[in-house]
Write a structure and sequence with these properties.
Layout: H1 2-9, E1 13-14, H2 15-22, H3 26-34, E2 41-42, E3 48-50, H4 52-66, H5 71-101
Antiparallel strand pairs: 1-3, 2-3
Length: 106
């Protein structure tokens, strides 16, 4: 399972392949990057590289756009989800620290 997670997040796919897999135009993909909805890596030559996770995100964005959701709303939802994930992660770490040191919450 760890290998599955690692390959999904590796940024090795160029924009041409992403275009083929998603059905989006290069302009649409770049626009979603400009709107801070997707974050490809760049090679030293400036070529964008995407992961399978990025492709899943792009497909989700395309579906939401088709449903009439604005990019601003999509970004707000992404920020909100990230905030919740960060809080859950913080609580998990705090729980592990408490368990390690035998601290009980009242």
């Amino acid at each position: 399972m760890a290998n599955e997670a690692s390959y999904k997040h590796k940024k090795v796919i160029n924009i041409g392949v992403v275009k083929e897999l998603t059905g989006l135009s290069q302009r649409q993909i770049r626009y979603y990057e400009e709107r801070k909805l997707i974050f490809p890596d760049r090679t030293s030559g400036g070529i964008r590289k995407y992961s399978f996770t990025d492709i899943e995100i792009l497909m989700d964005i395309a579906n939401k756009i088709e449903e009439g959701v604005q990019t601003r709303e999509i970004r707000q939802e992404m920020v909100r989800k990230q905030s919740v994930n960060n809080e859950q992660h913080r609580k998990m770490i705090q729980g592990q620290i408490n368990a390690h040191f035998g601290i009980r919450r009242k």
